[in-house]
Write a structure and sequence with these properties.
Length: about 120
């Protein structure tokens, strides 16, 4: 990849499409392996893995996907943060909402005014 697409931005469509195809080639119809292998390739790995997973998921259907990928989250996000093993999804959404309201309630700065002019 580095030689073939030298100088190409790491989130470019072409190089990431290749990684998506390669992830599917390695994992075949093993949904978990497709996602894991594609993420491990780096670059724009959240998008490539999501795309690869979507394609394989469409092929194998829900019955072919391990339940850990779609079962109820019970309002819980598990983390690897020291001292904070879990978070409430509702709490995270509330925090984002507070931040968004704070940002959108502030008057436009000088840079914003220049961009609109």
């Amino acid at each position: 990849m580095d030689q073939r697409f030298k100088g190409m931005h790491p989130v470019h469509t072409i190089n990431n499409a290749c990684l998506t195809v390669w992830g599917i080639t390695i994992g075949k119809t093993d949904f978990t392996r497709v996602i894991g292998e594609t993420v491990a390739m780096g670059m724009d790995n959240d998008c490539t893995a999501a795309t690869a997973g979507s394609i394989v998921g469409a092929v194998i259907g829900k019955r072919g996907i391990p339940s850990k990928w779609y079962k109820n989250f019970d309002d819980t996000v598990h983390s690897y943060l020291v001292g904070r093993k879990t978070f409430s999804i509702r709490d995270i959404l509330h925090r984002f909402e507070v931040q968004a309201r704070s940002i959108h309630s502030q008057p436009a700065g000088l840079d914003d005014a220049r961009q609109r002019a």
